[in-house]
TrEMBL record:
Any Pfam family hit: Porin_4
Taxonomic path: Bacteria, Pseudomonadati, Pseudomonadota, Gammaproteobacteria, Vibrionales
Top-rank lineage group of the source organism: Bacteria
Membrane topology: Multi-pass membrane protein
Signal peptide: 1-21
InterPro entries associated with the record: Gram-neg_bact_OMP (IPR050298), Gram_neg_porin_domain (IPR033900), Porin_dom_sf (IPR023614)
SUPFAM superfamilies registered for this protein in UniProt: Porins (SSF56935)
Domain Porin: 14-296
Record bears the keyword Iron-sulfur: no
Subcellular location, record wording: Cell outer membrane
Organism of provenance: Aliivibrio salmonicida (strain LFI1238) (Vibrio salmonicida (strain LFI1238))
Keywords noted in UniProt: Membrane, Signal
GO cellular component, one term: cell outer membrane
Transmembrane segments: none
Protein name, entry field: Outer membrane protein, putative porin
Amino acid sequence: MKKLLLSTAILSSLTSTTLFAATVYDQDNTQLKVGGRAEARANISDNNETTDNSSFKDKSRARINLKGKTKINESLGAFGTYEVEIGSGKDNTVNTRYLFAGLSTTVGNFSYGQQDSAQVMLTDYTDILATFGGDAADLTTGNKDKRENNFLYSGEFDALTVQANYIASNEKDDDSFGISGMYALPMGLDFGLGYTSGQQASTGLNSVDADQINLAIRYTVNAFMVSGLFTTGEIDNKDANGYELAAAYKLDQWVFQGVYNFQDVDSTDTENNVAIEAIYKLNKSFRTYAGYKFEQIDNKDDQLQFGLRYDF
């Protein structure tokens, strides 16, 4: 158990998605936490160039996160989460990232709303960068995060985590379901398997059948982490495959990370790139980072991205 807790702590320090939160209310078995980030960042790439725009593009954003939970009785509780992202500039956009509520029971949590599919706990193995990455994981829309109209079950049984979800789309013939499991061994080795199936919109007038299988593995030792995601599926009777390989190393206040993404659909490469980045954490609340993506597909250009981020 001590090794498992140590592994979790190392992963939290290596990855850059941890959201700090302050407890603003804790009374009568009810708790509310508020957190978020202010992130000033920019991207430089020929992809940004148009008749009116240069290769430099500001991508600054802010996020606000609210998390609440309450105890109903000894075996039943309730929870809710809301997270919004706000873009910079006079034409800024406001996008809801998460909006869901549910019940926590002795056999697991049941929730509904805009939340991650059951596959995301597997794709998070390799989606670790602050700048790029996560390009090859989603062969189907049912595999993605932040899905609306999403019914989710999540249960933890010692070292085993099980999730299942059903997405009841607003659009006709666009529903999907998925199931996944993840097991954590005490020596720092985690692995998981997932499956999603359903229908999704295509470029034509009708929806198409889409299925995907995910296999994920991750190993953490001392300050080093390496992981892999391997995925295969079928979309409208066309074979699709992908894999992501990730590595991270923590050295004092520095974190160095890299990811390789590859995906092909019907024997045509759709993703093929290498992304590397360095993060310097001045303290637990403030960091600066820079990353570079090397594109291997001819019609895609390399990208440089950098930023400053304050978590609260």
